[in-house]
Amino acid sequence: xxxxxxxxxxxxxxxxxxxxxxxxxxxxxxxxxxxxxxxxxxxxxxxxxxxxxxxxxxxxxxxxxxxxxxxxxxxxxxxxxxxxxxxxxxxxxxxxxxxxxxxxxxxxxxxxxxxxxxxxxxxxxxxxxxxxxxxxxxxxxxxxxxxxxxxxxxxxxxxxxxxxxxxxxxxxxxxxxxxxxxxxxxxxxxxxxxxxxxxxxxxxxxxxxxxxxxxxxxxxxxxxxxxxxxxxxxxxxxxxxxxxxxxxxxxxxxxxxxxxxxxxxxxxxxxxxxx
Length: 275
What we know:
This protein is an alpha/beta fold. The protein has helices at about 15-25, 45-55, 80-95, 115-130, 150-160, 170-175, 180-190, 220-230, 250-270, and strands at about 5, 30, 35, 40, 60-70, 100, 135-140, 165-170, 195-200, 200, 210, 235, 245, 250.
């Protein structure tokens, strides 16, 4: 039984509206990134309590904190970013989230990623050390323009750091936007470390984001492989159908629903149960 979640801030900045639409779609979990136009790490504790109460009242729970940890330049201050991770760990504990999404730092345009490998690994290891014993898993997302934007470098990070709290999340659209055919070129490499799946698709060449199955992200092939491998995890809708940027995206309720129907249509065709 696969579990559906989603970046509900793509529906609306208003948390009540986020919960209403998720409930109408039968989605029981939230990847919490923001509410009221405020990033999750910038909400105060009173606001976090309001979030927890609202989500619980809607019959939902939180699958992940969709944090921006690691979305800074490789030359930007890291000590302050570790403090930012401390806040993410506090938020995850307060909201009962088992997972925190992270990234592996933006690199200067034109630089050979190998030049920055040692510093990336040092920083990733420090993040994992900070999270050790906190009851959460850090899942690295393959965002474009960071060190871990290709399957090979995602594998390098997770194997070189070697921490039990570090796993991977899979974003097919982001791989496509880096010129990668995700299933063909990345699945076998990364499957042993996959903890979490983010659902969107994209077109090779243009990078245009599309609903699942309508691009070059090999979503159907990946779904079949995960089913055959016995994967039993979370699939989080991140449609980006109206707007996508470095710190997030937006779709609105109507396009979020389109994205939901596209993905669940694939699951239905493949005979995969979900909730």
